[in-house]
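User: Here's a chain of 149 residues. Predict its fold as tokens.
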Amino acid sequence: MRHFYFFLLMVLMASCAENAVRIKTTESDSLIKDAHIRTTAVEIAEEPEENPRPIIEITSPENYEVINSSRLIIRLNISNFKLVTPDKYPRKGQGHVQLWVDDMEFRGSKTEFIFENESNGTHTIKAELMMSNNTVLPYSDAIKVIINK
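Assistant: Prediction complete.
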């Protein structure tokens, strides 16, 4: 039985080789020999993004601003993102803010946070966007302020 399969394999290979010998290029096939790809420079107009990326920035106070009070008011500018209350069913392009003042975390669907009785010294403020199911998004801003009351 093995001899039969070997013989069949040899017949198939011989028929393929015979066909391969028949396929030759002739002088009329010179286009194939000289084939090349011609390219030209084309400028592609960029289309506006359907869903532009969200932006969050701390507008007040400024980075390394000296505040002569124990009251700290943080204002945010948020674009391309809708602020909503936390929900277990997130929707693209909406959520809330997670704000860090040093190691203290605050959340809300607002753009202004007010803190009283802050201690003297340098403080780090970081604002992040979060989806409504509390997944942190890769959009944030951070600054440092100096409180000198």
